Structures are given as structure tokens and as C-alpha cells.
Amino acid sequence: MDIKAILAAHRSDLRLDLFRGVANWFIFLDHIPDNVVNWITIRNYGFSGAADLFIFVSGYAASVVYARMMLERGFIIGATRLFKRAWHLYAAYIVLFVIYIVTVTNVAAQYAAPDLIYEFNVASLVDHPIRTLAHGLLLESKALNLDVLQLYIVLMACFPPVLWIMLRKPDLMMAGSVALYFTARAFEWHLPSFPEGRWVFNPFCWQLLFVFGAWLALGGVQKCRAILRLRMLPFFGIAYLVFALVLRMAGRFPEFGKVVPAWLLDAFIPVDKTNLAPYRVLHFVLVALLVTRFVSKDWRGLKWSILRPIIKCGEESLAVFCVGVFLSFAGHLALITSSGSLLAQVFVSASGVAIMTFFAYYISWSKRQDQQDSLSPGRVPAAGTRISETSAFRDPCRFKSSRNRQKL
Questions:
Q1: Structural domain for 166, as ranges
Q2: Would the pTM of this model clear 0.90, i.e. be above it?
Q3: Alpha-carbon distance 344 to 372, whole Å?
Q4: Structurally, how many domains does the chain consist of?
Q5: Is residue 91 one of the residues assigned to a domain?
């Protein structure tokens, strides 16, 4: 095998779990409308948001895990493991989709609030229940807040050939991803949704962030070191972030927006999320470069106890994401059926984050018990036997060092 890519370091990079945990918390908060707490999320202060971070880090982590697997055990094994991961994501989506639409429709009927089924994009269930479920199985549902998971499933299912090429021609694969991005925008390629419209996150465009994360993990970081060392990078990056902040605030506050030229505001606001606008990509890349420039793998803050809950939520990202989607609906319902006061918004947000963190710790603890059971006296596996993955919510993107894998 003529391998051109450079695999990332063997030891775990806690920044991946930290950023995925942050993304999960922010996605949950962003999914609760009319909530003052979601003003702390990154989408309010620039062009990019938590979804960009989630997809990018997922691509980086997936390439580290499955590229090494392909090299050690062959392409077929690596591809089947990727498809298995995509299947786990799909199974989680189906369970969440069914629970989600049933809960929304029941709550709307119980509280005599028919507007809820329109707000959460499940109105088609009333008129076409069978067709809605069928299109939901085909990932064509527009149920609110499930769009990120739909995108993630498609990206993981299509990743095997992408990774195969990237291991041999990483720069060519990255160039192909960029070409697909601009072609999809130029010719308006998209995937349809039921009963009408398009995917909220166009996968032909959003694949760029996923592939970019994979490219960085397979040698792209080394190729970007010259850019990272540029003295002008921090100044340019900060200037662009300030520019994005000003336009974002101008779009949120009409009085402030009057001082910004209308043609400039119309060019950037509202931000094109569906097709991942180029200025949104640039904003995210600059944020990533600045963060990685000042937060290294050896940053002492990664060991702080206050960050452990966030890192744990990143380690169990799939389960935490699914719990967060359901909790965001519950939180929204709690606010519209109560006073919706500032105290209520803070309480709902804090409670949701606490429940997500509890689930992350519980799942992590449960996995350790399964491992101890499989290695307990009287049930020690034979030499060379691999321990199987027992949980549909297992997140293989949380990779261990080679030394830890030998211990298992």
C-alpha cells in the first residue's frame, strides 16, 4: 500500500472530546428558542456555530480511528467498521425520530397547542402518517433538530472510499472535496425533504468540514505549520472575527444595524447555513487555527476538574446528542407552558446540561462494568480474542493509546 498520509499521534487528544462536549452542550442550548442562556453559544458572535464544530471534530476523530484500523487490518475491516458506526447512528436516529414525533403530537393534542406540530415540522404526520414514517426511514424527514444527526449518518456512510483515497492521495482528496463544495453551490445540488423543501444541512457542501478535519488528522496539520507560524495570522484572524461579530450584532439589533451599510449586511446576514457559505467556512477555520495555536495537546487546563464533565460528554457524544435533542423539546415545552421567566430559562438550561452530563457518566460507568465482566475470572477470553462492542451507543471516536489497547 502506497501510503502518503501521516497518521496523527497515537496518544489521545483530549481536545477532541472537549470540543465535542462543547458542541453538544451548545447544540442543546441553541435548540431551545427564546432562551437567554443560548446567548453564550458561539453562533451568536460570528458566522459559524456549534454544528460546524461538531462535524469538523467528528471528521478528524473518525479518520484517526479508522485510518489506523485500515492500515493494521485492511480496507475491508475498516470499511465494515465504518458502516457499523453509520448503522449505530442510523439506529439511534430511528429510535429518536419515532419517540420525537409521537411525543410532539401527543403534547400538542394534550395541551391543545396545534402550532407545536408546525413548529417542529411534523405536521405531515397528521395527514400522511405512513408516508411520513417511510420518508423518515429514508432520512427525508424535516423534524426539527434531527438534521445534524441525518448529516452525520450520510457523512459516515460515505467515508470509507474517501478515507481509502485520502490515505494514498490526501491532498487530491481534499481538492476533490473543495471542488464538490463549489460545484454543489454553483449547480444547487441538494437532497430533498418530505413533504417539501431541502435538507437543512446540504451534505454536498457540509462534507467540506468533515473531510477537512480528516485531512488535518492525516498530515494536514504538518502542512499548515507554515501558516500557523505567520505573524500576521493572529491579527488577520482577530480582525475577521471582529468583523463577523459586528455584522452578527447588526443583524440581531435593528438600531445598531442602521450604522452598517445595507448592501454589506444583506451580503452576510442571514448567514447561509444550508449551503455552508464560504465566509462561514473561513470564520470557522480562523477560529480553529487560533484556538489550536493557543491550546496545545499538553495544555494543563485539559486536566482541570471543571472541564471533566464537558470532556465526558464529548467521549459519549452520540448518546449525549440524542438525549440533548429530546431535552431541548422538553425544555421548550416547559418554557411555553410556564412563565418563561429568566429564572425558568436558566433552570431549564442548567437542568438539561446536568441530565446530559449524568447520562454521559452513567454510560461510561456501564461500559467499564461490561469490560470488567468480560475479563472477570472464569470468563477470561482466549489469547487473540477481541472484545466485542456491546453498546449501540459506543463512540469509537474516543480512541485509546496502543498501550491501553494491549491491556485490553
A1: 49-237
A2: no
A3: 42
A4: 1
A5: yes
